[in-house]
Amino acid sequence: MEKITMTVSEVLYAMRAVGIQCNQRIISDGIASGAYPFGRVVNTGVTGRRTLQIFRVDFYAWLDSKTPKKTDLQILQKSS
Fold first, then answer.
1. 11-36 pLDDT, tens per residue?
2. Which of 38, 45, 54, 63 could serve as a FRET partner for 22 with CA atoms 20 to 30 Å apart?
3. 5 near 26, Cβ under 8 Å?
4. Secondary structure percentages of the chain, helix, strand, coil, to 5
5. What are the distances in angstroms from CA 13 to CA 17, 19, 45, 75?
6. Beta-carbon neighbour count of residue 27 at 10 Å?
7. Host H or E run for residue 43
8. What local confidence, expressed as pLDDT, does residue 3 receive?
9. Cα dihedral angle (54, 58, 61, 66), rounded to 10 degrees?
């Protein structure tokens, strides 16, 4: 059975694998601000450290919507 949630490190790896430049702080800030809709802040400690809950299905749906499809690439190649 696959996990429902994922870690920031897993998100970071997947985003970098498709060419999205990011780091853990960018991901955390994006989730906290609502720019990344695939997670939520569960808790913020006294030092400002955040505990995040990142939902795997939501993340991969978001990632899929942000990466070019094969047909998109074919259209770009024809227009060049």
1. 999 999 999 999 999 999 999 999 99
2. 45
3. no
4. 50, 20, 30
5. 6, 10, 25, 28
6. 22
7. strand 39-44
8. 87
9. -50
Residues contacting 13, CB < 8 A, separation 6+:
none
Taking CA atoms, 74 is separated from 20, 54, 62, 67, in Å, by 21, 33, 22, 14
What are the structure tokens assigned to 32, written together?
């906290």
* Residue 8 main-chain phi, psi, to 5 deg: -60, -40
**What are the pLDDT digits (tens) for 33-43?**
999 999 999 99
pLDDT at 76: 56
* Amino acid type, 74: Q
Mean pLDDT of 48-53: 95
